[in-house]
Description:
Layout: H1 2-24, E1 33-37, E2 40-43, H2 44-51, H3 87-95, H4 103-113
Antiparallel strand pairs: 1-2
Helix pairs in contact: 3-4
Amino acid sequence: MPKSSTKKKSTVKKSQTSKKRATAGKKKAPKKKVTVAKGVTISKARERKLERKPGSSNTGEYTNVSPANFAGRSGGASPYSFPINTLKRARNALARAHFAPNPEGIQRAVYKKYPQLDPKKKTKKGKK
């Protein structure tokens, strides 16, 4: 019995050393990175995972928008969806908020940045 157990140990050691030799000279391929917002790069796999969240299909399409100008995180969607950097995009985020898991969060973020879009706070212009 002792002889067979020593053979097993030696074969285990040989397989471990052969793996080390096989990977010693090879370089690992770098992970592919993708820019999803201004100054933010993530792996391609993480981007795919974020795009699967409800309301997050446009993740990574606004590479020139600062991460602070997205309302997706407050709505439960990807943090890089629902851009609100311009008034036009903020209106669009309001129109598409129903796709997010928490539409009220998107609305809150838009109304905080653009109070003039909030219908509750609108005042009539002109004479009284």
